[in-house]
Each structure stands twice: as C-alpha cells, then as structure tokens.
Design goal:
315 residues, alpha+beta, disordered N terminus
Length: 315
C-alpha cells in the first residue's frame, strides 16, 4: 500500500510539473526570474520547469562525511565523483535529484557541481570566472529540457550543456569543464578510500531515499521540447559525449559494452582512449598519455539536442 502511494505521488508530481510548463510556453518563461537584456538562444525556447526560482534549492559549501560514515549509500548507488588537488569528493545522485547544484570547494578550488535529472547530466565546472568566485542557484527554467542555472552576481542564466551563459550581461561567457566521473559508490570508494561524501544534513527536509522522477529513465518520454531530435538511438540511451577542437562525438554504452577493452579512436583530429567499465556503467576518456579529457555521461536525446552535428561512434 505504501509503495503504491509513493508511486502515485511521483506520477502526480511529474504531471503537475509538465502541466505547469505547458501553460508557460510561447516565450512567457523568459519574462521574469533573470536578466534577459541580452541572449544567445531564442527566448521562446526557454520553458518553466515547474518549481520557481530557487524552488529547487542549490547547496552552498555543504557538509561532508567520511566514507565510513556514509552508511546511507548502497554499493550500486550512483554518485558523481570529483578529485582535485589530491582531495576526492562524492556527490550522491539521490541528493542531487533534489538540489541539482552544489557550490563547493575541492582541493582548494571553488567548483560548481551540477546535475540535471531530465538529461542524466552530471557536470563540474571551475566556479572562478574572471578572477572571482561565482555562486549559482537553480532558475527553475529549462532549455532543450536541460537545467538553466543563474549566478547570484548578475542574474544571468547559464546552460549546463552549452557550458556558457545564454542570457544577461554574462552572455557568451564560457564555463571551464572539469573531469567528473559518474559511477557507483562501490567503484568510487574502492579507488578513493579517503573520499568525503556529501552529507544528508543539507539544511533542507527532503526524502533522499525516494526518486522523484520514478521510471523516467526507462521510458521514451521527454517532458520538454528540444530543438533537435535524432532517431539513431533510443532517446534515453546512455552515451558519453566529448568535444575536442570544436568537434562533438558520442560513444553509446551499448556499443562500448561489446568491446573487450579500452577503445582507441580519434575525435577532433586527436587520438583518444575510451575506457568503459561494464560492471559500473561508467566511462572515462583520456588522451594517449593517460590525461583525463573532460566529458559527460548523459541520455542520447540531450546530447543530440545540443550538438546536432555530433559524430556517433560505430554508426
């Protein structure tokens, strides 16, 4: 009975989100909640996601626990892992589902950890822009079904997957992507036993043991319009995408799983290695010297929407 009530609650919440967005189309989403004095994307393609500005509360310099204290994580739980300057931190997806942004410091570096549940995208950036640390909040708006966040300094909107500001005075300013892993807790803990883990004590009351998105990952439905759709793969097929010398390329997990070891390939005129871990459904891209190249794991529809000219490995 309790499981049925939870399932119904998820469906109702998502229905409300979609219904709300449907009443805020034709550009009305861009009339408030940010600086729109300049923009690099069509304003009528910005949609209200349902929750208002800061309705999904970003986290600011939150607390962490040791790996031994993270008994709320199961081995197969998904996390985003970042290592900077010898310090490793894990950000559980079960927490990020409810907050989407973590303004943090790792290894002394100010960083922004971002996660968009609708695209499956976990991405980390250097939060220092033009010599100043920027703090970011969740705008409640979406572009190509992908989160738009805003900076507290200028109210400009930033696109997670475009990795740049798309409205306001910061329009066109780029974000520096950092190497981030999307893997299981057991895998990350094994390789980083001294890792710190984002604490459940966020200062907000949320049920971090409930997935508010239900079976979204397993169906074909995309809740918000995207500018480009590509039928070469299932919309929710997992891929790892990379941009090298301006050339976008995607590697489907299903194809990588058929290989017996790391794949050597070329993207943007550069030789690279794609190391796919079948057991943990995780991939890392490096150059031929073993240096990690920042990339992103995500649903195929999202990568294709932002990078319609992308190459697809083993097409």
């Amino acid at each position: 009975m309790e499981k049925n009530r939870m399932k119904i609650g998820m469906v109702v919440a998502l229905a409300i989100m979609v219904s709300f967005s449907a009443t805020n189309r034709s550009g009305s989403a861009a009339q408030s909640g940010g600086d729109f004095s300049k923009h690099s994307i069509p304003l009528n393609e910005i949609y209200d996601g349902g929750p208002p500005k800061d309705g999904i509360p970003a986290l600011f310099d939150p607390g962490f626990v040791s790996a031994d204290e993270a008994d709320f994580l199961r081995p197969a739980d998904r996390i985003l892992g970042l290592e900077v300057g010898g310090e490793a931190k894990a950000y559980p997806i079960k927490i990020l589902n409810w907050h989407e942004l973590v303004n943090d410091k790792v290894g002394g570096k100010a960083v922004l950890i971002s996660y968009c549940p609708l695209c499956g995208t976990g991405m980390a950036y250097d939060a220092v822009i033009d010599g100043k640390r920027f703090l970011f909040g969740v705008s409640g708006k979406l572009y190509n079904s992908n989160v738009l966040f805003y900076d507290k300094e200028t109210e400009s909107l930033w696109s997670q997957l475009k990795m740049e500001a798309v409205t306001g005075s910061m329009t066109g300013k780029k974000l520096q992507l950092l190497p981030l892993e999307h893997t299981t807790w057991s895998d990350w803990q094994r390789r980083h036993p001294q890792t710190k883990v984002l604490s459940l004590k966020t200062g907000h009351r949320r049920d971090y043991f409930r997935d508010p998105y239900g079976d979204y990952e397993r169906n074909r439905r995309i809740f918000f319009p995207v500018a480009h759709e590509d039928a070469r793969l299932h919309p929710k097929a997992w891929v790892i995408g990379v941009i090298i010398n301006g050339q976008a390329k995607a590697y489907p997990f299903q194809a990588l799983a058929q290989e017996s070891g790391p794949v050597e390939d070329e993207a943007g005129g550069k030789k690279i290695l794609i190391d796919y871990d079948t057991e943990n459904a995780s991939a890392v891209i490096t150059d031929m010297r073993g240096e990690i190249i920042p990339s992103v794991q995500l649903y195929w529809f999202a990568w294709a929407a932002f990078y319609p000219e992308t190459e697809l490995w083993k097409e």
